[in-house]
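Intended use. Records like the one below are meant for learning the mapping from a protein sequence to its folded structure. Do not use them to infer anything beyond what is encoded.
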Amino acid sequence: MGPSTWHPVAAHLAAAGHRVRVPSLLHIADGTAPFWPRVVEAVRDDLRQIAPGSPVTLVAHSNAGLFVPAIRAGLDLPVAHSVFVDAALPAPSGQTPVASPEFLEFLRPLAVRGRLPRWTDWWDEADVAPMFADPVVRQKVIEEQPTLPLSYYEQHIPVPAGWDDHPCSYLLFGPPYDDVCAEAGGRGWRVAHLPGAHLHQTVDPAGTARHLVALATA
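Structure written out for the chain above:
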């Protein structure tokens, strides 16, 4: 998804006195694999204006959760907290596949000349419509989406050992991430639930911002 899905939350956080950056990952799949180094580079470049030594909180949504270990390892800034929002969890160490074999079997028939349609085009209208409360927001989010190559989902992301030796927490919106949230709790992470669909941060940015602050400052 594009950065517009998080701009409303960022606005609420900024209004509360927090300094917020929303790096764009729209172009990380341009070129050939591996793609994960471009994710790290995009975040690192976006944070260059932050003063050296300033601690940051990483907030990752959905698939971006898999990249948190690599991002943390690639930053020059100390990471004080990582918050996973309705997000996939990286492995404790080793490597994390971006997609399971079962999910790859779902994706392969969707690809045309090796490229997938936009994420919202993978699903039926009955699945997509409840994610949006505002048709204008929906149009903006959908039009902003990139079309990713299938090879993006075939990559494995390195997971540095000890990446989670800092406070981590999980904010659940709802299914199908219930089991993932339970796994986060099993890892000893603080968890919270803000009921909603997968893009609930666009529906309730104020509530999402409050939960992020509560988790990151607990």
